[in-house]
Amino acid sequence: MAAAEAFSEIIDGDVYKYYADGRWQKSASGKFVAIINPTTRKTHFKVQACTQEEVNKVIETSKVAQKLWAKTPLWKRAELLHKAAAILKQHRDPIADCLVKEIAKPAKDAVTEVVRSGDLVSYCAEEGVRVLGEGKFLVSDSFPGNERTKYCLTSKIPLGVVLAIPPFNYPVNLAVSKIAPALIAGNSIVLKPPTQGAVAALHMVHCFHLAGFPKGLISCVTGKGSEIGDFLTMHPGVNCISFTGGDTGIAISKKAGMIPLQMELGGKDACIILEDADLDLAAANIIKGGFSYSGQRCTAVKVVLVMAAVADTLVEKVNSKVAKLTVGPPEDDCDITPVVTESSANFIEGLVMDAKQKGATFCQEYKREGNLIWPLLLDNIRPDMRIAWEEPFGPVLPVIRINSADEGIHHCNASNFGLQGCVFTRDINKAILISDAMETGTVQINSAPARGPDHFPFQGLKDSGIGSQGITNSINMMTKIKSTVINLPAPSYTMG
């Protein structure tokens, strides 16, 4: 099936439809939301502006579909997920093209995201069969004061309707990281994609539609956050929220009430470099960690904390690599592409200008054209500069010179974020001690921070999030324990 033909039913004229009750629909609002191409800064796509009434209908349909889905055999759920994964990878090119146009992701990285998403769905199907196929059998006489008069059987049951809200930077991969665990666990899904990235997400949802999932089980509503955002997150029909994004998640957590939350809300990932570090390795990872996808990653290196004795050498090595980064449109597979919105570019520029005013050393000339910001390393950053603490989400990286490992740990732990961090040293004992002292959800030793592989636990401390992700953790989080206790008339001992 040709790509255009495969996705023909998801668009009406030049406006993409939303997905509910197993079919693609137009909103009764008659309105649309424009999606701006970060490179051209012009409207490239349009999506439906769904109403609160349509959201109500979607959630009611989801509740009905979930009850039937929960009775679907586990092997059948896994079979459908495998099918969706194959279709997703089959249509990687048109989905990747959306990522290029919507979020300026370099073309090769866009294809990688889609393929990785298919692999995640397949792994989730396999892991779900293992995790959910096992329960526990407990006996009462293991606790003091009891004889063996009770047998307890425990199993994992679905939560109900899961609301999934992924971010712009990985609108396909971070959507399926929520969708697949929810579905294998027996839940239904309501997806609210980000505006930038919504069309790629709609294409992804259509792959699940083509796989043959039951009507109403998967929904995707688009629209303005100001109109349906709070309405969705505070809806009484929602039983779980999985959100990835910025500090909006803190507001959601305060309003959501007594439902399970899974949130990843950004980071200020610190990279501590000791005197005995392999500086070539560290420099390569700083480039990869700090400038990949123009620094628009929660797990990007956000601040380099380097021992003063090796700082000059490290900065020189990083600068030589920065000079080799290509800058331009995502279609050309450039290393540095436009950041997602003009407001993002303005925010980044504000951090840069603050650092300049306060005396930071500019290793490169600051250069910006529209949303495109050239890569910039800022040396001799001090704690009174905003960029020492704030997350730029762009290709600008601060370097702070430190005199001890404790000084680096202190700066890391003084942040309100605690997602990931990394330490470079040849001494494994020092690495472990520093790792244990860093208040972050994950510490990478001799490598840049990274979310994957997708089955690894992924979590943040402090303002970086609630709960843990990773395929197994997400499956467990999207279920609850159900116990059945058999009361025996007399103590019973096997072979007693």
TrEMBL record:
Q: What class of enzyme is it?
A: oxidoreductase
What the entry lists under PROSITE patterns is as follows: ALDEHYDE_DEHYDR_CYS, ALDEHYDE_DEHYDR_GLU
Stated EC number for the protein is 1.2.1.9
List residues of the Aldehyde dehydrogenase domain.
24-483
Active-site positions, per UniProt?
264
According to its UniProt record, which reaction does this protein catalyse? Answer: D-glyceraldehyde 3-phosphate + NADP(+) + H2O = (2R)-3-phosphoglycerate + NADPH + 2 H(+)
Note the PANTHER family from the entry. ALDEHYDE DEHYDROGENASE, NADP-DEPENDENT GLYCERALDEHYDE-3-PHOSPHATE DEHYDROGENASE
Kindly provide the name given to this protein in its UniProt entry.
Answer: NADP-dependent glyceraldehyde-3-phosphate dehydrogenase
Species name? Trema orientale (Charcoal tree)
